[in-house]
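Quick review question:
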């Protein structure tokens, strides 16, 4: 019931609204005919687990990805994908296993970049409210106004400098 072979456009948009914390992004190698697994302890049920991955080097740039729950049931199964997204809701608390399998390649290592986010919302989004956005927009407008003033002042100073240089050159031409 949790297997997620593809994400609909709505799910993809919801997935993209939750940014991944750079601390949760990992790049690693998977040797030929080997499997690399990562473990995430989730202490509650009904927690959303989102992941994204892509193969950046090695062979046909494909990898197999499986996520298993603490009872060893497969909840995400992606076959021979060069990149992908997955989203699953945990049913039981415990240790979840995320494995990247390169068994189909006998002589090519794969370089995989993987991001994982646990929970309904982005950690950053939890701290942003309407008041914060309004303040940010006001500050941005203020910075824009200051930049326009600075640009006008710089243009005026450049024109004055050109005029002074021309005066100095004219004076030097008459004296020398």
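Suggested answer, residue by residue:
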């Amino acid at each position: 019931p949790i297997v997620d072979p593809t994400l609909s456009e709505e799910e993809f948009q919801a997935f993209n609204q939750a940014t991944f914390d750079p601390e949760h992004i990992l790049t690693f190698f998977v040797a030929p005919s080997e499997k690399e697994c990562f473990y995430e302890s989730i202490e509650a049920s009904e927690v959303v687990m989102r992941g994204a991955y892509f193969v950046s080097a090695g062979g046909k740039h494909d990898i197999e990805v499986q996520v298993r729950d603490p009872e060893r049931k497969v909840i995400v199964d992606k076959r021979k994908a060069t990149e992908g997204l997955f989203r699953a809701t945990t049913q039981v608390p415990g240790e979840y296993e995320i494995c990247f399998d390169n068994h189909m390649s006998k002589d090519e290592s794969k370089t995989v970049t993987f991001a994982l986010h646990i929970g309904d919302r982005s950690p950053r989004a939890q701290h942003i409210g309407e008041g914060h956005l309004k303040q940010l927009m006001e500050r941005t407008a203020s910075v824009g106004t200051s930049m326009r003033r600075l640009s006008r002042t710089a243009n005026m100073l450049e024109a004055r400098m050109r005029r002074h240089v021309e005066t100095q050159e004219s004076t030097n031409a008459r004296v020398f």
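Why it works: Confidence is low (pLDDT under 50) at residues 1-5, 121-125. The first strand starts at residue 25 and ends at 30.
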